Amino acid sequence: MHIIRRRGWEVTERPVTPEHVVLKRRSLLKGATAMTILPGAALFSRAARADVPVNPAFKPGRAVTEEKYATTYNNYYEFSESKDLWRDAQALKQRPWTIKLDGMLKQPRTIGIDDLLKQVSLEERIYRHRCVEAWAMTVPWTGFPLSQLLKIAEPLGSTKYVVFETAQDKVMSGLDAPFYPWPYVEGVTIDEASNELAFISTGMYGKPLPPQNGGPIRLTLPWKYGFKSGKAIVKITFTDKRPMTFWEAIGPTEYGFWANVNPAVPHPRWSQATERLLGSDERVPTQIFNGYADQVGALYADLKNEKLFM
Ligand code: MTE
Q1: What is the 3-state composition of the chain as percent helix, strand, coil, each rounded to the nearest 5?
Q2: With left for phi above 0 and alpha for psi between -120 and 50, is residue 154 left, alpha or beta?
Q3: How confident is the prediction for the chain on average, in pLDDT?
Q4: Is the pLDDT score of 229 beyond 50?
Q5: For 114-158, what is each residue's pLDDT tens digit?
Q6: In angstroms, what is the span from residue 127 Cα to ligand 1's centroid?
Q7: What is the pLDDT of residue 7?
Q8: 3-class DSSP state for residue 235?
Q9: Domain range 19-296, CATH class
Q10: Is 172 in the pocket of ligand 1 (CB under 6 A)?
Q11: Where are the domains of the chain?
Q12: With a 6 A CB cut-off, is 81 part of the ligand 1 pocket?
């Protein structure tokens, strides 16, 4: 029989952080009316530069979370079940870093992250992020649309799913916990992966992505609960079989494959109607698809008998 154990994100949250003034970063949006081409730059710093153009199409509709909260309150089970892992995560070396492109591709291969970064156009997008635990943040991510990576990978027409596997490194002490079905694997359909919102992040707040937030490269899917956005990606597999994903394997009655944000569908053990904003601790209503229904609603219009919201 499957044993249900309380995981870090299910225990009562740590004492709340004090009130603070939320940084608005209005300057980022000012003058961001046109996208420009990123000028040539040293490769490592290409992961995120302060002068990467902000894509004005993605307005977050709420204040950006202050960087110190987004970078010190993390979920990263490979390191720890606690949120307080950012110091430990600094031990994860960010270079060299390769990503294996595998499965139903014209040419399976392994690509170095800096080689990949040379082939994409970086931009900044300010996205809302909603964790299944009912906390939320708003983050300026630097990166590139996942669709650009699909073009580089060249999947076969029969590909139905894109599966992301994340790093297992000796510095990750959480990997010793036998309960979890490592490696961390999450996946989306090829249509979801091709959607304009699906993003690969290599930076945040105008800097290279910190290890605790998934550096050097992570997935960012703002309309889904955060657990779908795997950190520290080392392998991307293209397949026609729906993968068994990390959280679905652990708790199939609580975490599903789709995991789209929906305030009307509670987690079996708590409500999803509202969310707590990191930093201010304000509680605000949760929105269907985390507020991105216009961009992604059509992806699910024809899906019947699927649990889209857990
Ligand atoms: N990726 C890996 N590899 N390991 C994890 O434990 N946690 C997920 C997701 N990606 C996780 C992961 C969860 S539950 C959330 S909410 C987000 O990362 C948190 O991202 P953040 O720490 O950058 O806020």
Answers
A1: 20, 25, 55
A2: left
A3: 88
A4: yes
A5: 999 999 999 999 999 999 999 999 999 999 999 999 999 999 999
A6: 15
A7: 46
A8: strand
A9: alpha beta
A10: no
A11: 19-296
A12: no
